[in-house]
C-alpha cells in the first residue's frame, strides 16, 4: 500500500533539500520579513523549497518535528546523487572516524570470543594492560564486578565495556593458566594506536613485504618507518600489498606515492565542476625512489589505493599485479553539522597522471546496480580470466615508458593473477566456514602459550612451527570430534592450504600479530608468488 503522508512525500524532496541548500544560513528568515511567504519572489529553486518548508512549519495543521524528520529524509536526497555521497548520522560518526584517526581510548588488548569467553590473544606492548601485567592467553571473566564469561554477551558489548575515556579505570578479573583463583587487575584506559600498516617483513632474499590496510592519519609516518626497518634488513625490492584496502585520506596516499616518485612527477590531479584543477607533484624527498616495487591490487582496492597504484603505474615506477581494482574516482569533502553528523559530498573527480578517470560507470539513484557490479564481474568470469575484461579504445592511454593503460573502471594490473580456488574443497569450506579451523588455533595457542609468548621474530616463529610435525593430523582429529569426518582425498588436495592457515592463525597469536599471519600465509598466495617472480626477473635483467 502507498503511504502518501507528509512524512513520505513532502519532506524527502523538500526538507532534505532545504537542509543541504543552507538551513544554517537562515532557513526561515523570510517569515520575519513582513511579507507573506507564499508571495515571495520565485527567483531560485531553493527559494521555493525554503518557502515550502516555512509554510509547513508555520501553517501545517499539526506540529511537525523538523529536526527528527531531517534524519530520515536527508539520506533520501543524498541517495539521488552519486553512489559515494553519503549522510552520516552523529551516532555513526565516531566509529567511522576512529579507524582513520590513528587511535582510540581503551585498554590495549587484542581479544577473541571464539566461544562465550573473552580470550586475550595479544597485549599491546607498553599499553595500559601490559603495564599492569595482563598476558596473552588470559580469559576475562569479570569486568567491573560483572560476570561476562559464559553469558553469550555480544562482542560489541564487550568492546563497549572495555573502552572508555582515557584516564578512567576498569577492573578485570582474569582466569590464568595454572593459577587457581582469579587474577584481579585495574587498568587505566589510555590512547591505543591503530596501525594502518598491518605487516612489514623481509619475505625472501632482498625482497620486503608491506601490507597496508587503510590510509589513516598516520599512514605516511608508518610507511617511512617500515621502509627504514626493511632497508636495515637489506631489502632493496618491495611487494606493496593494497588488496582489500578501500582507501582513506587522500593526502596520505599522495604522501606515500611521494616516497617512490622522482621530483616533478605528477601524482594525481582533481577537477571540480568548474573544471578547476588541483595538481599534486612529487617533491623529490622520497626515501624509496630507486626501489623496485610490485603493487598488489584486487577488486577490494579502492579510492586512495587506486590513486597510489595509478600514480606508480602511470609513471612507470611499479609493476601492478593481481586483479582489476574497484573503480572509485570521485573525491568527497566531509561537511560537519553542529549535532555531530556530517555530509560526505562528492566535489571533484580525480585523474591519474596520464589523464585517466578510473571511476566505473554508475546511474544516479541506482546504488543497488552499482553495488552489484563486483558480483557481475564474478559472474562474467573476470575474477578468473583477463580475456573477460573489456575496455573501450576511447579510454586508452599510454605512459611515458610506452605502456598501454586504460581508464573507465578501475586500475587494470600489468600482470593478471586469477582468483585461486584450486585447493578449496568441500572439506576445507566446512572446517573454515564453521570456524573449526580458527578455534583449533586458539586452543593450540593455549597449549603452547609459553613458547608462543617467547617468539620475537619471523625466523623464530618458523622454527617453532616447523618443529611440530603433527599439526595437520592433530587438526583433522580435532575436526572429527567437532563433527566433520575426514575426507582424505579432499584433505590431500587441501592439505597445503589447511597447514598454511593453521600456521598463519597461530602466528597471529604471538607478539608478531599480523606479521605472524602474513609470514605464514604467503606461500599459498599466488599473487605474492607472481610478484616475487617478477621482482626476481627484473633483478636478473638488470
Layout of helices and strands, plus pairs?
Elements: H1 6-22, H2 45-59, H3 66-78, E1 86-88, H4 90-101, E2 103-106, E3 109-112, E4 118-123, H5 128-131, E5 139-143, E6 146-147, H6 155-162, E7 169-175, E8 183-188, E9 190-193, E10 197-204, E11 207-212, H7 219-232, E12 237-241, H8 250-260, E13 266-272, E14 277-281, E15 292-297, H9 304-314, E16 319-322, E17 330-336, E18 342-351, H10 367-371, H11 373-379, E19 396-398, E20 404-406, E21 415-416, H12 426-433, H13 436-447, H14 449-453, H15 458-466, H16 471-481, H17 488-508, H18 514-521, H19 526-541
Helix pairs in contact: 1-2, 1-3, 7-8, 8-9, 13-17, 17-18
Structure, explained:
- This protein has 542 residues and is α+β, with helices and mostly antiparallel strands.
- It has four domains: 6-78, no CATH class; 103-193, Pdz3 Domain, CATH 2.30.42; 197-416, 2-enoyl-CoA Hydratase, Chain A, domain 1 (Alpha-Beta Complex), CATH 3.90.226; 426-528, no CATH class.
- 38% of the residues lie in helices and 20% in strands.
- It contains 19 helices and 21 strands.
- The protein has helices at 6-22, 45-59, 66-78, 90-101, 128-131, 155-162, 219-232, 250-260, 304-314, 367-371, 373-379, 426-433, 436-447, 449-453, 458-466, 471-481, 488-508, 514-521, 526-541, and strands at residues 86-88, 103-106, 109-112, 118-123, 139-143, 146-147, 169-175, 183-188, 190-193, 197-204, 207-212, 237-241, 266-272, 277-281, 292-297, 319-322, 330-336, 342-351, 396-398, 404-406, 415-416.
- The strands form five sheets. Strands 3, 4, 5, 6, 7 and 8 form a six-stranded antiparallel sheet that branches. Strands 10-11-12-15-16-21 form a six-stranded mixed sheet, with helices on both faces.
- α7 packs parallel to α8 (250-260), α13 packs across α17 and α17 (488-508) packs antiparallel against α18 (514-521).
- The radius of gyration is 27 Å and the shape is globular.
- Mean pLDDT is 87; it is low at 1-42.
Amino acid at each position: 500500500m502507498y503511504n502518501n503522508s507528509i512524512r513520505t512525500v513532502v519532506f524527502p524532496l523538500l526538507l532534505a533539500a532545504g537542509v543541504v541548500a543552507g538551513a544554517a544560513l537562515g532557513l526561515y528568515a523570510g517569515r520575519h520579513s513582513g511579507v507573506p511567504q507564499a508571495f515571495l519572489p520565485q527567483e531560485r529553486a531553493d527559494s521555493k523549497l525554503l518557502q515550502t518548508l516555512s509554510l509547513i512549519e508555520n501553517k501545517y495543521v499539526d506540529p511537525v518535528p523538523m529536526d527528527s524528520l531531517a534524519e530520515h529524509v536527508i539520506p533520501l536526497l543524498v541517495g539521488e546523487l552519486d553512489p559515494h555521497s553519503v549522510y552520516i548520522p552523529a551516532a555513526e560518526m565516531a566509529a567511522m572516524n576512529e579507524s582513520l584517526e590513528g587511535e582510540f581510548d581503551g585498554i590495549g588488548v587484542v581479544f577473541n570470543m571464539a566461544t562465550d569467553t573473552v580470550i586475550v590473544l595479544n597485549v599491546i606492548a607498553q599499553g595500559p594492560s601490559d603495564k599492569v601485567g595482563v598476558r596473552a592467553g588470559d580469559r576475562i571473566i569479570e569486568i567491573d564486578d560483572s560476570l561476562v564469561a559464559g553469558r553469550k554477551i555480544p562482542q560489541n558489548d564487550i568492546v563497549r565495556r572495555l573502552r572508555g575515556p582515557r584516564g578512567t579505570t576498569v577492573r578485570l578479573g582474569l582466569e590464568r593458566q595454572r593459577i587457581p583463583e582469579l587474577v584481579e587487575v585495574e587498568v587505566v584506559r589510555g590512547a591505543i594506536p591503530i596501525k594502518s600498516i598491518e605487516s612489514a617483513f623481509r619475505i625472501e632474499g632482498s625482497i620486503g613485504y608491506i601490507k597496508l590496510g587503510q590510509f589513516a592519519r598516520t599512514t605516511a609516518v608508518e610507511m617511512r618507518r617500515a621502509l627504514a626497518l626493511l632497508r636495515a634488513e637489506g631489502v632493496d625490492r618491495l611487494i606493496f600489498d593494497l588488496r582489500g584496502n578501500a582507501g582513506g585520506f587522500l593526502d596520505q596516499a599522495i604522501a606515500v606515492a611521494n616516497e617512490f616518485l622522482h621530483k616533478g612527477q605528477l601524482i594525481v590531479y582533481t577537477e571540480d565542476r568548474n573544471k578547476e584543477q588541483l595538481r599534486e607533484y612529487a617533491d623529490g624527498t622520497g626515501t624509496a625512489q630507486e626501489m623496485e616495487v610490485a603493487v598488489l591490487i584486487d577488486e577490494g582496492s579502492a579510492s586512495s589505493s587506486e590513486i597510489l597504484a595509478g600514480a606508480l603505474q602511470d609513471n612507470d615506477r611499479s609493476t601492478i599485479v593481481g586483479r582489476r581494482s574497484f573503480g572509485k574516482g570521485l573525491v568527497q569533502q566531509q561537511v560537519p553539522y553542529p549535532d555531530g553528523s556530517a555530509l560526505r559530498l562528492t566535489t571533484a573527480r580525480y585523474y591519474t597522471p596520464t589523464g585517466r578517470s578510473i571511476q566505473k560507470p554508475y546511474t544516479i539513484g541506482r546504488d543497488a546496480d552499482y553495488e552489484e557490479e563486483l558480483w557481475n564481474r564474478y559472474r562474467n568470469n573476470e575474477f578468473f580470466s583477463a580475456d573477460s575484461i573489456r575496455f573501450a579504445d576511447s579510454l586508452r592511454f599510454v605512459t611515458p615508458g610506452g605502456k598501454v593503460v586504460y581508464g573507465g573502471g578501475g586500475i587494470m594490473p600489468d600482470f593478471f593473477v586469477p582468483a585461486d580456488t584450486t585447493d578449496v574443497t568441500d572439506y576445507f569450506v566446512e572446517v573454515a566456514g564453521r570456524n573449526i579451523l580458527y578455534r583449533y588455533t586458539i586452543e593450540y595457542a593455549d597449549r603452547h602459550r609459553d613458547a608462543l609468548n617467547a617468539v620475537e621474530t619471523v625466523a623464530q616463529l618458523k622454527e617453532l612451527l616447523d618443529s611440530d610435525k603433527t599439526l595437520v593430523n592433530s587438526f583433522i582429529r580435532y575436526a572429527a570430534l567437532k563433527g566433520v569426518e575426514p575426507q582424505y582425498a579432499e584433505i590431500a588436495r587441501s592439505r597445503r592450504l589447511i597447514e598454511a592457515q593453521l600456521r598463519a592463525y597461530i602466528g597471529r597469536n604471538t607478539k608478531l600479530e599480523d606479521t605472524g599471519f602474513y609470514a605464514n600465509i604467503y606461500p599459498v598466495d599466488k599473487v605474492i608468488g607472481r610478484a616475487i617472480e617478477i621482482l626476481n626477473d627484473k633483478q636478473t635483467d638488470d
